[in-house]
Design brief:
- The chain has about 475 residues and is α/β, with parallel strands linked by helices.
- It folds into 2 domains: about 150 residues, Rossmann fold; about 210 residues, P-loop containing nucleotide triphosphate hydrolases (Rossmann fold, 3-Layer(aba) Sandwich).
- Helices cover about 35% and strands about 20% of the residues.
- Helix 9 packs across helix 11 and helix 13 crosses helix 14.
- The longest helix has 17 residues.
- The protein is elongated, with a radius of gyration of 26 Å.
């Protein structure tokens, strides 16, 4: 039997995911004293990092309990965990109990916390030459320094939803030219009061998800949305054509196939959760707002629209903002204001009509901060989360679980533009919910690829 590895955890691992203590299966974990010091320093405040630091300290307190020094030196047994249907016998937790002689590394300032953790890891490697000592950190520079010092260093991968962002479910699929030749014998038609459903069996069914969109290009184009997946059978309906002037949504038409599918999902009351991914200019915010206004003001399906986003700056922070919650959030909502201006111009009624519509819209759209979402319940609301790629999986869960009966929630984002430290395309909360919700019958997802903002923006997206 191969001897288990000894993983030395950096502080940022526990501040990113406190449950990391239980995610190393049969291997052992070692926490330098510097990690406990940094957790103690980071525990104050109401930020996500502070909450995670406090939770990590609680986990450590529960694990240690009444153990004395001898028991801590011998290692504290970690509880067994079940992952992917398999139960793993966990290893042991070791805490630094002795003053290890600092390893003098060339050109390294020993007073820095990261370098103290690195020095401790180097000493451990010399004390246990037969064991595989691995430093786990989300700090790239620390991992580089560890490799220079001859220590194996890895990123924390247990929070990765996918191995590669290219494997993310797209929500749309083009059918092969011989699709009808293979599937036409298993096709049945059922008429319902509000729609016509088609039942289909065949090879396509094996890879289908609820509310997935598929199309067939050519002389006889075919566009459909899957309504239900039941074993080896799927039910689908023809996608409504929002590119026609007769089917405008708050004065807006879909300009391409992907936007048309997006409006089908956004305008479907049975789809409670929609995620739209895409680069700048693909129309995510405009389509979402148009669908929200149409269903809130015209159809009265929702009482109001709530829009929020993570307040992560692209450049330098501009400091504290004055005013109420909504006034503080206004500078972050430039995309909302720009798109509302477009929608108001598209709406008919002349100058006086547009002014009245603008006043009505302003009363039915509320801007809220994510910082005050805990404990709230939103009933019959149309909630839009912009820049959702900057949310962690835990933050995404906090927001989604605020939705009450009759609420529709739409997440917009571009996982190629993440501004939050320690988040990547594969660990973003947006990637997480896309993967976890793809099998749910009341959720839909699309990746928009074609830009429709302007020829300048399209060229910049490809050339820069």
């Amino acid at each position: 039997m191969t001897k288990s590895h000894l993983f030395v955890l950096d502080t940022n691992i526990l501040m990113h995911d406190p449950s990391a203590l239980f995610r190393f299966e049969e291997h052992d974990i070692y926490l330098p004293m510097m990690v406990l010091e940094e957790l103690d320093a980071a525990k104050k405040g109401m930020s996500e990092v502070a909450r995670n630091a406090r939770q990590a300290s609680r986990f450590l307190d529960e694990l240690i309990g009444d153990a004395d020094r001898e028991a801590i030196e011998a290692g504290i047994s970690l509880p067994s965990m079940e992952q992917g249907g398999e139960e793993f016998t966990s290893g042991f937790l070791f805490l630094q109990t002795d003053q290890l002689s600092p390893e003098q590394l060339v050109g390294v300032n020993q007073n820095l916390p990261d370098n103290k953790i690195l020095s401790t890891t180097v000493v451990l490697q010399k004390l246990h030459p037969t064991r595989q000592i691995i430093l786990v950190s989300k700090d790239i520079n620390l991992r580089i320094k560890a490799r220079v010092a001859g220590i194996c260093a890895e990123d924390y991968s247990s929070d990765k939803t996918l191995d590669d962002a290219s494997l993310l479910y797209s929500g749309i699929e083009e059918l092969d030219e011989d699709f009808w030749e293979i599937h036409n014998k298993e096709l049945e038609c059922h008429k319902e009061p509000t729609k016509t459903l088609y039942t289909l069996k065949g090879p396509l069914v094996e890879t289908c998800f609820p509310n997935q969109c598929f199309y067939l290009a050519g002389e006889k184009p075919f566009e459909a949305v899957i309504s239900e997946v039941d074993g080896d059978t799927i039910k689908f309906q023809h996608a409504k054509d929002y590119r026609s002037d007769k089917s405008q949504v708050w004065g807006i038409n879909a300009r391409n196939l992907e936007q048309n599918f997006a409006l089908n999902l956004l305008m479907d009351p049975s789809v409670d959760f929609v995620t739209l991914l895409g680069t700048a200019g693909t129309g995510k915010t405009l389509l979402t707002l148009a669908a929200g206004l149409a269903q809130t003001l015209d159809a009265s399906l929702y009482t109001e629209i709530i829009m929020t986003r993570v307040t992560v700056s692209v450049g330098e922070d501009i400091g504290f903002l004055p005013g109420t919650e909504e006034e503080k959030m206004t500078p972050w909502m430039g995309a909302l204001m720009d798109n509302l201006e477009v929608l108001n111009q598209e709406h008919e009624g002349g100058e006086w009509g547009r002014a009245a519509t603008a006043d009505l819209i302003s009363n039915r759209i509320k801007i809220r901060s994510l910082n005050f979402m805990r404990g709230r319940t939103f009933l019959n609301r149309y909630i839009i989360i912009d820049e959702a790629q900057n949310l962690t999986a835990k933050q995404m869960k906090t927001v989604i679980t605020r939705a009450g009966p009759g609420t529709k929630l739409v997440c917009l984002g571009n996982i190629a533009q993440i501004d939050t430290p320690y988040l990547t395309e594969t660990t973003s909360g947006l990637t997480y919910v896309v993967d976890r919700f793809k099998n749910w019958e009341h959720s839909g997802h699309l990746i928009l690829k074609r830009g429709e903002r302007s020829r300048l923006a399209d060229f910049a997206s490809h050339a820069l």
